[in-house]
């Protein structure tokens, strides 16, 4: 029985994919494949290299055979690319649609990099799939209103800081402040909510996780100081309590009545993880949710005009009423 391979100093033996890519390069260029030598190179046993070759032949269907005259393995026919992925036309279509969607978010790295990834994926197919991308392009379109104006370099710097666990310094202009403030934060997560990008970060000075809109971040820079992100952090849990991006720490039981016209539209979407719908006999409905903050739900309710009415909590109903009265004064 073979013993487990000893790990490399400060790490582990390199992954199977790297070994098989190296084997593919040797076979494609008709160079000798020496299992003993490759085993030493990758710090695994020669039998591991043999199993890699068996996997490439039996599972990836690569034309590998042993040539006894040369004491090596070889490809029996030309192979251009290593078959990393096998995807269907439907999966490629789904990726193409995703590319079209993400292209709408200007100011992020996705628009260019997805196009490159799409070409790589189609190039790795084992069998030829014929389709007209131009025709697909005319069949699908996406319109985004109020897309985030986040700066590309800001996005990249924050993404790098999250991966490297580096503290970030930047100037930030809160909505309720007249002047920008300097913040030093530990970036945890980038979230896209309603076509706008936000950074979830721990603010040591305030002792809590704060949400920052990327378009309001100016002059970001890495400080070089690292931090440990808590194991229990979950962006999903952090955002769950809010109707939009601001979660809050409260627990508000919200009930909203929608008339029959609006009810048809409300039923067509999932608005919040905690939502419950109570149907009425006349076709109207009550939408119930548990929220941590009320600011964003107030703006959403106002967007429905006279098709929606707040039933609870009383504080939200009172706030919406005051907002409507203020709006009426502006139009007098």
Offer a quick outline of the entry.
This protein has 332 residues and is an alpha+beta fold.
Protein described:
- There is one protein chain.
- The chain is an alpha+beta fold and 332 residues long.
- The chain folds into 4 domains: 16-75, Arc Repressor Mutant, subunit A (Orthogonal Bundle), CATH 1.10.10.10; 89-139; 158-233, SH3 type barrels, CATH 2.30.30; 252-330.
- The protein is built from 11 helices and 11 strands.
- The protein has helices at 16-28, 35-42, 46-58, 89-102, 110-123, 133-139, 152-164, 235-240, 260-267, 295-302, 314-330, and strands at 64-67, 72-75, 166-172, 181-193, 196-203, 208-213, 217-226, 252-258, 276-279, 285-291, 308-312.
- The strands form 3 sheets. The protein has a 5-stranded antiparallel sheet with strand order 6-5-4-3-7, covered by helices on one side.
- The longest helix is centred in the C-terminal third of the chain and has 17 residues, at 314-330.
- The protein starts with 15 loop residues before the first helix and ends with a helix.
- Residues 1-13 and 126-134 have low confidence and may be disordered.
Give short descriptive properties of this protein.
four-stranded antiparallel beta sheet, five-stranded antiparallel beta sheet, Arc Repressor Mutant, subunit A, disordered N terminus, alpha+beta, single chain, 332 residues
Mean pLDDT: 79
Percentage of residues in DSSP E strands: 15-25%
Low-confidence parts lasting 5 or more residues at pLDDT below 50?
1-13, 126-134
Helicity, as a percent range? 25-40%
**Class of secondary structure makeup:** alpha+beta
Number of domains: 4
Tell me the distance between the termini. 89 Å
Can you write the helix and strand succession as a string? HHHEEHHHHEEEEEHEHEEHEH
| Strand elements, count | 11
Total helix count?
11
Shape: elongated
The main sheet orders its strands as 6-5-4-3-7
User: Main beta sheet, described?
Assistant: 5 strands, antiparallel
From the alpha carbons, calculate the radius of gyration and give it in angstroms: 28 Å
């Amino acid at each position: 029985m073979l013993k487990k391979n000893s790990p490399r100093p400060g790490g582990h033996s390199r992954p199977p994919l790297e070994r098989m890519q190296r084997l593919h390069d040797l076979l494609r260029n008709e160079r000798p494949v020496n299992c003993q030598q490759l085993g030493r190179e990758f710090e695994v046993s020669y039998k591991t290299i043999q199993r890699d070759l068996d996997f490439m032949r039996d599972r990836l269907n690569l034309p590998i055979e042993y040539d006894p005259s040369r004491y090596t393995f070889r490809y029996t026919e030309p192979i251009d690319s290593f078959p990393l992925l096998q995807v269907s036309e439907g999966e490629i279509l789904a990726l193409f649609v995703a590319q079209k969607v993400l292209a709408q978010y200007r100011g992020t790295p996705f628009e260019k990099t997805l196009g490159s990834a799409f070409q790589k994926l189609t190039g790795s197919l084992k069998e030829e799939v014929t389709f007209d991308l131009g025709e697909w392009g005319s069949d699908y379109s996406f319109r985004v209103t109020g897309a985030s104006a986040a700066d590309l370099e800001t996005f990249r710097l924050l993404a790098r800081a999250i991966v490297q666990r580096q503290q970030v310094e930047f100037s930030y202009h809160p909505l309720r402040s007249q002047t920008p403030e300097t913040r030093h934060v530990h970036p945890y997560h980038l979230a896209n909510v309603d076509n706008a990008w936000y950074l979830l970060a721990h603010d040591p000075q305030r002792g809590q996780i704060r949400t920052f809109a990327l378009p309001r971040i100016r002059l970001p820079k890495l400080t070089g100081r690292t931090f440990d992100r808590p194991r229990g952090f979950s962006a999903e849990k952090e955002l769950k309590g809010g109707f939009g991006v601001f979660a809050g720490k409260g627990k508000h039981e919200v009930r909203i009545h929608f008339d029959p016209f609006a009810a048809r539209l409300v039923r067509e979407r999932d608005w919040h993880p905690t939502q419950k719908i109570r149907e009425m006999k006349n076709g109207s409905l009550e939408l119930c949710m548990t929220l941590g903050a009320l600011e964003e739900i107030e703006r959403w309710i106002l967007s429905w005009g006279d098709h929606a009415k707040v039933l609870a909590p009383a504080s939200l109903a009172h706030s919406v009423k005051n907002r409507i009265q203020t709006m009426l004064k502006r139009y007098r």
